[in-house]
Amino acid sequence: MFSLISRLLVAALLFGANFSPTFAEDKTLTVFAAASMKNALDDIDAAYTAKTGVKVAASYAASSALARQIEQGAPADVFLSADTDWMDYATRKKTINDATRVNLLGNKIVLIAPRDSTTANVAIGAGFDLARLAGDGRIATGDVQAVPVGKYAKAALEKLGAWEAAAPKFAMADSVRAALTLVSRKEAALGIVYETDAKVDPGVKIVGVFPEGSHPAIIYPVAATTTAKPETGGYLDFLRSTTARTIFEKYGFTALTRPST
Prior knowledge:
CATH architecture of the largest domain: 3-Layer(aba) Sandwich
Oligomer: single chain
Number of domains: 2
Shape: elongated
Strand order of the largest sheet: 2-1-3-10-4-11
């Protein structure tokens, strides 16, 4: 009799453990990612959830804003930056686990115009006169002091000798997607954004591509934060998987790692 009672008690304890509210609660990872990653990462997150059952809540903004939010205690598990500078910033602030850091993707910056603009086939090189090309219109890009795409744009224009004349015409946006919207809505005559952004907005067209040597290499590093949940490692592995790589490349990113699976 004692043995039967013991078995019933053990079964009850196991049943209670398996169906406790904490155990049954859905697992969710919070990802802070550069705005330019939204379309590709939304698809990748959906694929990850379908495979693992782990949900992903993604927050998109300029890398500068996200790094500072994490520094201020925002509950993120993953930080995906559009440049190495802001990941370096997070490293200095000790908000990421540097051992998990990987240079995940590459990209290009391009010159865009509204879809129905007469501007086309712009040769971007030394002596490129962006100010003249913009005429009386504005040129949209991210804030050149903080937003990665703006920093890349300014570096390229300085290298090509076009920054000084064009600087007064710039409309600085708080993210690359905000700059893209200004051109798509024809509130700016031209814009400098990532190639991947230009490809997802039917309201704009690419009219020129900046030479790679005109600016620092565009690198997207990813890392877990110091407060990341245990499931984060699996997510970081998935970002390097063949499935994720295929999606990233579909949107125009260049994979910088070998597939993990």
